[in-house]
Amino acid sequence: MQGNTQPIDRETLLLEANKLIREHDDFIAGIEATNVVQKGSVLVFQGEYYLDEQGLPTPKTTAVFNMFKYLAHVLSEKYHLQN
């Protein structure tokens, strides 16, 4: 898992992740990664998912999911969380 990736602390990783979000072509105001956890070799990003009053997904929910998936793909290849 960690053989080809660099260690990084949570705060620095979140700063980089949110910079990537803001620079992405599909950026929507308000999307922000507020936490990240390591699941095996994958970094899993968390934040507001913008569900409706009934707890169902909205169009913004899909955008958030796709953005966090993008972050996981790009950043998991480069980093792993420091213990």
UniProtKB/TrEMBL annotation:
<protein>
    <recommendedName>
        <fullName>DUF2498 domain-containing protein</fullName>
    </recommendedName>
</protein>
<dbReference type="InterPro" id="IPR038191">
    <property type="entry name" value="YciN_sf"/>
</dbReference>
<dbReference type="Pfam" id="PF10692">
    <property type="entry name" value="DUF2498"/>
</dbReference>
<dbReference type="InterPro" id="IPR019633">
    <property type="entry name" value="DUF2498"/>
</dbReference>
